[in-house]
Amino acid sequence: MVSFRKLGLLPLVVTPVIGSPMQLERRNSTDKAPRNKVIIDNDYLAGQWDPYLLALNAGWEVLGLTTCTGNTWMPQQAKHALAMLEYGNLSCIPVYTGALYPLVSTYERFHSWEAVHGDLPWQGAFAPYNATLEAEGWDPSGGSDPYRIVQAAFTEGFPTAAAQSSPGAVQFMIDQVHKYPGQVSIFAAGPMTNVALAIRTDPEFASLAKELVIEGGKIDVNLFQFNLLFDPEAAKIVLNANFPRILVSGNVANSVFATDEWIDEVAADGTAAVSMVDPSIVLNSTTFFIDVDVAYASPNYGNVHAYQKALAPPNLRNITYVLQINETRFKNTLKSIYQKPITCADLS
Ligand SMILES: *[C@@H]1O[C@H](CO)[C@@H](O)[C@H](O)[C@H]1NC(C)=O
Ligand SMILES: *[C@@H]1O[C@H](CO)[C@@H](O)[C@H](O)[C@H]1NC(C)=O
Ligand SMILES: *[C@@H]1O[C@H](CO)[C@@H](O)[C@H](O)[C@H]1NC(C)=O
Ligand SMILES: *[C@@H]1O[C@H](CO)[C@@H](O)[C@H](O)[C@H]1NC(C)=O
Ligand SMILES: *[C@@H]1O[C@H](CO)[C@@H](O)[C@H](O)[C@H]1NC(C)=O
Ligand SMILES: *[C@@H]1O[C@H](CO)[C@@H](O)[C@H](O)[C@H]1NC(C)=O
Questions:
Q1: Which of 27, 28, 35, 346 to mutate to test the pocket of ligand 1 (most atoms within 8 A of CB)?
Q2: Per residue in 164-186, pLDDT tens?
Q3: In terms of C-beta density within 10 A (0-12 exposed, 13-18 middle, 19 or more buried), how is residue 344 classed?
Q4: C-alpha distances in Å from residue 313, one per residue of 85, 200, 291, 310, 319
Q5: Counting atoms of ligand 2 from 1, which one is nearest the CA of 12?
Q6: pLDDT at 35
Q7: What pLDDT is recorded for position 331?
């Protein structure tokens, strides 16, 4: 059901693009203007390179990668993040460990909800433990040991470095928005536990960030609501917080790349990232007010409710929701980042 779980190593070199590939402008090191900065918070699996490669390619500074449990347990994901950086010669970007558990949800609570309302198509770390699958190279799941590392899942290579736990992801995010007020985009590609903890730890966190960016297949497609369903309480805290701007990329690229399977598989992460770094790629967007259902007994637990202004309850935030991007340009940009990926040598 979930193809990205078995997503292997992406080619770092792909066939040249016909015509002139649109390449986002690379950083000009003599340029003194403050660089755009981003922290990418994700539940990393093998192969999820495109958000940080797109950001780097556009001249953005990737301050760090932060991880929290979602697709699999956080310790395994932190190692995936490290391994992908090592493979891409990008180990100058630090990785920070984050939340091991969702705010309220537990393995048992999650499955009790499913027993009443039906199974979700993707359960991530909360999928029942399956020794056969793990032996085949699937990432660990199950309720007993969140620290278990399954080496067979590292198609991108097993990392030699360790993630940083002091400060952890939450304090790192808080420190960075204070260091660079109004300049740091928070790119939330996984469950929003770390971001929620940062908001609850520091009342200034959200307002000091530049914006929150969310990949939006997560919101309008059943499968990808996983990120909200895995930690609904965190998602509500985050989407109700006073970020100056919340950008959500809709399910804009799902049917576009049927002939380019590998692009199709990364497109969900990429549309949000490319809309963040290259706003002019957005051809159509809309604005509405948003909330997350946190009634555990509800069949809509963890689902989004959207409102127009006149009907919205007080204190909700409006989001900019991307409906359409320039697909030609997106495809060319995605290819160009893999043709000549940025490495730490380019960043020094
Ligand atoms: C970098 O910026 C400087 C000053 O704006 C400019 O003179 C120079 O041509 C730029 N270099 C590149 C490679 O764009
Ligand atoms: C990383 O560096 C190694 C050794 O210099 C090189 O062989 C490899 O092609 C580099 N990988 C990338 C993605 O640049
Ligand atoms: C483990 O996964 C395999 C492959 O999907 C499946 O055939 C098997 O029934 C699963 N085992 C358990 C105990 O769920
Ligand atoms: C949504 O918020 C933005 C600021 O982020 C504001 O400019 C815009 O007017 C708001 N839209 C509505 C419909 O309130
Ligand atoms: C933007 O998308 C909406 C919803 O799909 C559609 O009704 C509208 O015509 C689109 N606008 C443009 C300029 O394409
Ligand atoms: C989309 O991007 C391509 C390549 O950059 C460009 O030629 C085309 O005019 C753009 N289309 C729109 C509708 O902006």
A1: 28
A2: 999 999 999 999 999 999 999 99
A3: middle
A4: 43, 22, 9, 9, 15
A5: 13
A6: 87
A7: 87
pLDDT band at residue 266 using 50, 70 and 90 as cut-offs:
low
Interatomic CA distance for residues 196 and 103, integer angstroms: 9
Q: What is the pLDDT of residues 119-132, one digit of tens each?
A: 888 899 999 999 99
Q: Ligand 6 in contact with 17 (CB < 6 A)?
A: no
Checking if the pLDDT of 304 tops 90, the result is no
Q: From the CB of 22, is ligand 5 less than 6 Å away? A: no
E strand or H helix at 307, and its extent? Answer: strand 304-307
- The C-alpha atoms of residue 67 and residue 70 are separated, in whole angstroms, by 9
Q: Which domains does the chain have, with CATH numbers?
A: 37-346 (3.90.245.10)
As a whole number of angstroms, the distance between CA 171 and CA 197 comes to: 9
- For residue 314, report the distance from its CA to the centre of ligand 2, in Å: 52
CA-CA distances (angstroms) from residue 47 to 67, 70, 83? 15, 16, 10
Residue at token pair 């002939």: 259
Question: Is 23's C-beta closer than 6 angstroms to any atom of ligand 6?
Answer: no
Q: Please indicate whether residue 326, judged by its CB atom, sits closer than 6 Å to ligand 5.
A: no
**From the alpha carbon of 31, which atom of ligand 1 is closest?**
2
Q: What is the pLDDT at residue 175?
A: 98
Atom of ligand 3 nearest to the CA of 136: 4
Give the three-state DSSP class for 90: coil
Which residue ranges have their beta carbon within 6 Å of ligand 1?
Answer: 28, 30-31
pLDDT of residue 45: 87
